[in-house]
């Protein structure tokens, strides 16, 4: 190998080593940037979480809103649909017991009309709590009830727990969410279907 070939060969080796060094440094820089961004995002997420006092507060209309929501549930249970309907806002939208279940005023009333034909000895008892959400998608005044609903159907006495939360605006329920074990009720009655839309 002559001197020119040796110089060319050495130059190629040096270029390959330089490329490897540059590639290593690029990987180190990319890794460092990724770690920095991840750490910054984690810190900003932690910093952006609001405290309870920043997020919520007492409902200034607590007693009135609790009365509205409690009356709504009691009137439905007693069979007083006109009184219950009067407590719902024109734009009322209800959700539950599952994430895909939703209803409006007319569907709620017709579901309870069906319940009255099938159920007797309807009873409800509950405790209530109210709070105000200060910001976000759920802003406003809310009332939560948790308790038990019972009835007799097909000669069987059924009792189950529920959790109901309603948003009250200008003295009317404009949205709500109810949670209960629908499959338990269906099994207790002895068939599958929709025996109760609360």
Name some characteristics of this structure:
47% helix; 7-stranded mixed beta sheet; alpha+beta; 2 domains; single chain; Nuclear Transport Factor 2, Chain: A; 198 residues
Describe this structure in words.
With 198 residues, the chain is α+β, with helices and mostly antiparallel strands. It folds into 2 domains: 3-49; 55-189, Nuclear Transport Factor 2, Chain: A (Roll). It is 47% helix and 31% strand. The protein has helices spanning 3-48, 52-55, 62-78, 81-85, 105-118, 182-189; strands at residues 56-57, 88-95, 102-103, 120-133, 140-153, 156-169, 172-179. A 7-stranded mixed β-sheet has the order 1-4-5-6-7-2-3. A hairpin with a 6-residue loop joins strand 4 (120-133) and strand 5. The longest helix has 46 residues, at 3-48. The N and C termini lie far apart (93 Å). The model has no long low-confidence stretch (mean pLDDT 84).
Task: Compose a concise summary of this entry.
The chain is of the alpha+beta class and 198 residues long. The chain has helices at 3-48, 52-55, 62-78, 81-85, 105-118, 182-189, and strands spanning 56-57, 88-95, 102-103, 120-133, 140-153, 156-169, 172-179.
Amount of beta strand: 25-35%
Count of helical stretches: 6
Protein structure class: alpha+beta
Instruction: Report the CATH C-level class of the largest domain.
Output: Alpha Beta
Q: How many structural domains?
A: 2
Q: Let me know the largest β-sheet.
A: 7 strands, mixed
Order of helices and strands: HHEHHEEHEEEEH
Give the fraction of residues assigned to helices.
40-55%
Overall pLDDT confidence: 84
């Amino acid at each position: 190998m002559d001197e020119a070939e040796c110089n060319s060969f050495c130059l190629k080796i040096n270029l390959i080593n330089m490329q490897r060094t540059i590639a290593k440094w690029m990987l180190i820089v990319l890794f460092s940037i990724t770690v920095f961004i991840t750490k910054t995002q984690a810190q900003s997420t932690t910093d952006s979480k609001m405290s309870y006092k920043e997020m919520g507060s007492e409902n200034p209309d607590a007693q009135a809103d609790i009365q509205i929501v409690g009356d709504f549930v009691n009137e439905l249970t007693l069979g007083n649909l006109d009184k219950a309907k009067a407590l719902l806002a024109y734009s009322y939208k209800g959700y539950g017991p599952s994430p895909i279940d939703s209803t409006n005023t007319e569907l709620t009333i017709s579901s309870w009309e069906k319940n009255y034909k099938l159920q007797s000895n309807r009873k409800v008892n509950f405790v209530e709590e109210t709070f105000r959400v200060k910001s976000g998608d759920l802003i406003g005044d809310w009332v939560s009830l948790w308790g038990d609903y019972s009835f007799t159907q097909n000669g069987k006495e059924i009792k189950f727990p529920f959790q109901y939360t309603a948003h009250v605006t200008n003295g009317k329920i404009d949205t709500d969410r109810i949670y209960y074990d629908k499959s338990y009720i269906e099994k207790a009655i002895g068939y599958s279907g929709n025996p109760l839309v609360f």
